[in-house]
């Protein structure tokens, strides 16, 4: 049997074949969305640039050369140089590492936290639900950037504290989604059957409830990446994120605003990087929503 026939078999003979066929169907649907593919290509390029930054960057990201300060884009410096003679392209390339680190760490911290809190609240209901959702509403009632600024001000400026602050402000949205998903099937027959077999509440939540909430959470995480990048850039712009001489994109824009009228490239180039990466995550998240959300699939 050919591989394609095995993947598209209407009557799979094993769980492995069924899962492989579902993955193949999702991949084909995703590939038919040009914007989603564009977003995936942008994110893949970001990852490649971050991984191979030392080899891709033509110059040191922190090396200063005052004789080359504020040079316009040219063959020697494709994106020009900043006020200290540092190559902007090299700093943007190395800044991709910081951006990817922030995105990954915030997702690793906030998504599981929100997923667990929402699943527990939706599964148990009652006073547990009221307490956890009241805490969630407190965080949702405040703007993310303002709350992140408050946390960074309390913890101190720096990349690690910025990541913690952004993660603390990001989890409530995932908790709300997980709770809503859990409420739809917590009284389902398959949950009751698992309980009758003697499974504990936390085993049911960990092995059955949380996996069913993963697709919606993954979609929301991907869509939120653009907002996370902008929040991190905002903290860097205000001097509360990554500290000099780290090539953080928001901090680069902040330093370049003094030259925006005459040396426009100093602030514009990192701004373009932020916009392109943010659009990449938006396109990718929209494509994932189309292929992973059952309601979206039914509407097509």
Can you characterise this structure?
The chain is mostly helical and 300 residues long. Helix content is 74%, strand content 0%. The chain is built from 13 helices and no strands. The longest helix has 37 residues, at 88-124. The radius of gyration is 23 Å and the shape is flat.
Properties at a glance:
mainly alpha, 300 residues, 13 helices, 0% strand
Could you say which overall geometry the principal axes of the C-alpha atoms support? flat
Helix-strand category: mainly alpha
Largest sheet descriptor? none
**Which radius of gyration do the C-alpha atoms yield?**
23 Å
| Helix amount | over 70%
Please indicate the percent range of residues in DSSP E strands (runs of 2 or more).
under 5%
Spans of at least 5 consecutive residues with low confidence: none
Distance between the first and last residues' Cα: 31 Å
Strands, count:
0
| Mean of all residue-level pLDDT scores | 88
Short overview:
With 300 residues, the protein is mostly helical. The chain contains 13 helices and no strands. The relative contact order is 0.14.
Task: Describe how the helices and strands are arranged.
Blueprint: H1 3-7, H2 15-31, H3 34-51, H4 53-56, H5 88-124, H6 126-140, H7 144-155, H8 159-185, H9 189-196, H10 201-237, H11 249-256, H12 265-292, H13 294-299
Helix pairs in contact: 2-12, 3-5, 3-12, 5-6, 5-8, 5-10, 6-8, 7-8, 8-10, 10-11, 10-12, 11-12
């Amino acid at each position: 049997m050919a591989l394609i026939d095995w993947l598209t078999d209407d009557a799979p003979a094993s769980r492995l074949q069924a899962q492989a066929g579902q993955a193949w169907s999702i991949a084909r649907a995703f590939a038919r969305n040009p914007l989603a593919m564009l977003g995936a290509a942008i994110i893949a390029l970001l990852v490649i640039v971050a991984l191979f930054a030392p080899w891709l960057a033509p110059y040191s990201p922190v090396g200063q050369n005052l004789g080359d300060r504020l040079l316009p884009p040219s063959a020697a410096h494709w994106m020009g140089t900043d006020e200290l003679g540092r190559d902007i392209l090299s700093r943007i390339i190395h800044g991709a590492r910081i951006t990817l680190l922030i995105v990954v760490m915030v997702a690793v911290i906030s998504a599981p936290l929100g997923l667990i809190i929402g699943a527990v609240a939706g599964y148990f209901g009652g006073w547990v639900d009221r307490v956890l959702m009241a805490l969630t509403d407190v965080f949702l009632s405040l703007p993310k950037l303002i709350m992140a600024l408050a946390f960074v001000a309390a913890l101190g400026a720096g990349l690690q504290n910025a990541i913690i602050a952004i993660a603390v402000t990001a989890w409530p949205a995932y908790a709300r989604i997980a709770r809503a998903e859990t409420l739809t099937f917590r009284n389902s027959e398959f949950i009751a059957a698992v309980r009758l077999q003697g499974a504990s509440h936390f085993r049911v939540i960990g092995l059955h409830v949380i996996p069913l909430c993963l697709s919606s959470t993954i979609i929301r995480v991907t869509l939120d990446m653009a907002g996370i990048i902008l929040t991190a850039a905002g903290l860097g712009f205000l001097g509360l994120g990554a500290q000099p001489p780290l090539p953080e994109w928001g901090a680069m824009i902040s330093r370049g605003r003094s030259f925006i009228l005459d040396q426009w490239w100093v602030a514009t180039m990192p701004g373009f990087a932020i916009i392109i990466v943010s659009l990449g995550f938006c396109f990718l998240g929209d494509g994932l929503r189309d292929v992973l959300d059952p309601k979206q699939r039914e509407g097509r």
